[in-house]
Amino acid sequence: MTPTSLPSVPARSAPWSASRTALRAARRRRLGRLLAGLCGLCGLWLLEGRLLARGAVFPGQACGHHAHLVVWTAGLLVALCLLPWAPLAARAAAAVAVSWAATGYLMAAGERLPAWGVTESAALLVLLALVAWRVPVRAAVPAGVALAAGVLVAPVRDTGAPGAAVVVYALVVAVVASAGLCLRYRDAERARAVAAAREAERLELAGELHDFVSHHVAAMTLLAKATGTVAEDERVAASLRDIQAAGDEALTSSRRLLRVLHHDDGDAAPRAPLPGLDGVSALVDDFRRTGPGAVRVDLHVDPRFGSGLAPELAASVHRIVAEGLANVAKHSPGASAVRVTLRGAERRLLVSVRDDGPAGRPAPHAPEDTGGLGLVGLSERADAIGGSLTAGPVPGGGWEVLAVLPVQR
User: What pLDDT is stored for residue 182 in this prediction?
Assistant: First the structure.
């Protein structure tokens, strides 16, 4: 086993600061995409206005100028519905109202313009994708139908376009709606997978509560009872009886909580014994044999924490290392070295799994925002025992899963 240099100990609030920084970065990215889309629509709107202005009045059409203004204004108003000034369903309804009002005016006036409401159609398509993706189904169906119809009628109302143009528009509408539905399905699958991971971790924590917390409380209660029988001082005996009664109440509450966590499910599969620190070396050896390519794996365990840790903490360390190595195999096939470090400082235990893979991986974010569902459960496990877990890139390249756990012996 080759010792490695130890990572610096972060401040206690560092994981939370990283999460806040990741949230701010995500908001900036969303704002940047929104501004880029709006700039594109503005350019399209100005180009459409220039094309309409060239033929504002056509031979035999007394109201051509008015029709030009209607189409141009409708494009602007529908594009403004992309801004987050109201809930998405309300903005979609407003866009539908504007589009169909313009359609009704043009059809009633009998005006035909050489522009198919391009800005209006583009904004309606974006809204259609967003509605199919994010709006609840009950509201998404009528809103999506109205938006799709608004796009399909644009070429017909403006120029009496041939059937081929309508077919092309119909294909575009189908592709956009399908993309929104695919995103909805992906998010639903993601939510179900996250819920399943949390459920599995919740049941595992419930089992550890039964195996360790209840066991320790029961031992304390028996010890208080046994000591009370031989205590000569009545005040000491009374205090021990109070301790015994409090322990019995704690055991009753623990059983009640376990029934809630398990949903009174008596058919749960038997659980394997909790892994511990002894299994970390085996994890590293397995990764050396089965990891991608010739990856060098270094393991350093602080001798002060080689034994005597609380069983639930040792199990958490084992699972964090296992998930970190699994992430290296899955997301960093180009890594040439992996460093697993267990280090203690100021009554805290740092568990780090760091690789030197390429830097082109996602920006820092909280574990629940990553692609790996295992980090979701590990984050909840770390929170449950008073610690924290983060995952993100590190200076100089590479990726690190870092857990800060309170030391319990």
Answer: 94
- Per-residue pLDDT tens digits for 251-306: 777 777 776 666 544 444 444 555 667 778 888 888 777 766 667 888 888 876 65
Q: Alpha-carbon distance 179 to 320, whole Å?
A: 36
80 burial level (CB within 10 Å; 0-12, 13-18, 19+): middle
- CB 323 within 8 Å of CB 374: yes
DSSP notation for 127-191: HHHHHHHHS-HHHHHHHHHHHHHHHHHHHHHHH---HHHHHHHHHHHHHHHHHHHHHHHHHHHHH
Cα separation of the two ends of the chain: 25
- CA angle, corner 358, sides to 355 and 360, nearest 5? 125
Q: How far apart are CA 285 and CA 381, in angstroms?
A: 25
**So what's the pLDDT on residue 46?**
78
User: From CA 29, how far away is CA 281, in angstroms rounded?
Assistant: 41
User: Checking DSSP bridges between strand 337-345 and strand 399-406, what pairing results, if any?
Assistant: unpaired
CB count within 10 Å of CB 12 equals 12
Are 276 and 314 in contact by the 8 Å Cβ rule? The answer is yes
| Gap between the Cα atoms of 286 and 290, Å rounded | 6
Non-local CB neighbours of 36 within 8 Å, separated by 6+ positions: none
List, for the chain, all residue ranges whose pLDDT scores fall below the cut of 70: 1-23, 52-65, 111-116, 158-162, 207-215, 259-276, 291-294, 304-308, 358-374, 377, 408-409
pLDDT at residue 346 in the model: 72
Task: Kindly provide the residue ranges of all beta strands, DSSP E only, lying in 222-377, ordered along the sequence.
Answer: 296-301, 337-345, 348-355
Q: What CA–CA distance (Å, rounded) separates 284 from 127?
A: 50
Q: Coil, strand or helix: which one is 287?
A: helix
CB 316 within 8 A of CB 307: no
Length of the chain: 409
| H runs (alpha helix) in 13-136 | 14-54, 64-80, 88-109, 118-134
Give the closest residue to 161 by CA, choosing from 105, 113, 122. 113
What is d(CA 82, CA 101) in angstroms, rounded to the nearest whole number? 18
The secondary element (H helix, E strand) that includes residue 400 is strand 399-406
pTM passes above 0.85:
no
Alpha-helical runs (H) found in 268-367 = 278-290, 311-331
